Amino acid sequence: MTIKKTHTIQVFIAFAAIALPLLASLVKKDSKPNLVGQVISDEKPKITLSTWLDRSYQFNIDDYNADHWAFKEKMVRLNNQLYYELFNQLRVNGFVSGKENYVFSEGYIFSAFGDDLIYENAVDEKIRKAKVIQDTLAKKGITLLLAFAPGKGVYCKNYVQDKYVHAIKNTNHNLFINACKKYKVNALDIYSYFEKLKSSTPYPLFPKYGHHWSYYGACIATDTIIKTIEHLTKRDLPNMFWKTVELSDTARSRDADVLNSMNLYEKPEQNIKLAYPNIEFEQDSIKNTTPVLTISDSYWYDQVYMGVWNNCFAGGRFWYYYNKVIPSPVQGEKIEVWQLDLKKEIESNKVIMLLYSDGNLPMFANAFIDDAYLLYTNPSAYKIKNEKHVALQSYAKQIRETPLMLKKATQLSNDHQITLDSAIKINATKMLNGAN
């Protein structure tokens, strides 16, 4: 009798463990997990005859239920906490933990030590083309500026795990700077400038739990960029300045972007003083007449949030990885660069700035230099190339704007250890080939 009773209790417990999440999901109205950096399917799939027959409904509804079960957020956070506490592992794709809990993009560690070195002749050819673009635009009164930002791997090298550390033979940063000197291309070396500031700056230029430069570092970089553009163009831009600085133990802005993406159950103490200048912009409509188009990686987002584009760059836009247009030129619509007239966009600005951090130097400027070079040296060839590019990018945009398709691309990226853009391109190419 006791054995039978024990068996019944065990069955009840097992049933409750299986049924509880389902019951909770039915009772709870909004079970969408609040997890940073994860693509979640928002819209519940609808069953139709076609989705039933091609079996996509079953796949999609399983995926939706896996995203929205009641305890998903809690279980993910507990699982991530376990890996972090026991194994010092970050459950964030491409990121690793360093000494004293500093977090790093592994790719930026490789960049700091020259492990992602690209061919010198490839860099030389890219900068040679940049020189042609620079000279062509100069005749139209437009200045080209190449800016090189430091990554956290090089600036916080002392906190990198010992297994990554070795003697440095060369870096992509050196290759690009030397090529710019060789061809006399306008270059701003923020990378080396930050290295000089390291011993004297009163506040951290990179945070412990963030990937990008700190808010204070972004302010220093912005001030330097404005002064450089003024020097190159002989034009007076509105100044950015601050009279007071707030200090905080808790990261603001993007200073804990990786920590948020770690999706932990309980966040560790940040134990680092970060500085937040109370920035102001000189309000002078006469000075704010130099539109600057910035083509950059995610490092430029700090300046977007600060309002630099509007307050200093006369409304000049930001092309994120030469793809997403920020802010959108069409209110309420997501516009991408391939949808625009490249020549018209270039020539409506006074400065074209290409700013990339060292971890992204292998893809510096993405395809902008190749496209602009072809546009001005062989317009007919550019037109043919662009028509093919537009056809592919229309599918890529569809993937980026459809949560389920983006999730599949993200999974492909994680499974094959490739960038998300590469995964999107693979899937877009399949869609394009299937349509032809």
Beta-strand share of residues: 5-15%
Count of β-strands: 10
Strand/helix succession: HHHHEEHHEHHEHHEHEEHHEEHEHHHH
**Cα-to-Cα separation, first versus last residue:** 71 Å
Major beta sheet, strand line-up: 4-3-10-7-8-9
> Major β-sheet, in short?
6 strands, mixed
Specify the helix fraction band: 40-55%
> Please, what is the average pLDDT?
88
Shape category: globular
Structurally, how many domains make up the residues? Answer: 3
Q: Give the number of helices.
A: 18
Radius of gyration over C-alpha positions, nearest whole angstrom: 25 Å
* Structural class estimated from helices and strands: alpha/beta
Poorly predicted segments: none
Give a description of the structure.
- This protein has 436 residues and is an alpha/beta fold.
- It has 3 domains: 40 residues, no CATH class; 291 residues, no CATH class; 59 residues, no CATH class.
- It contains 18 helices and 10 strands.
- A 6-stranded mixed beta sheet has the order 4-3-10-7-8-9, sandwiched between helices. A two-stranded antiparallel ribbon has the order 1-2. A two-stranded antiparallel ribbon has the order 5-6.
- A hairpin with a 3-residue loop joins strand 8 and strand 9.
- Helix 6 crosses helix 8, helix 15 packs antiparallel against helix 16 and helix 16 packs across helix 18.
- The mean pLDDT is 88.
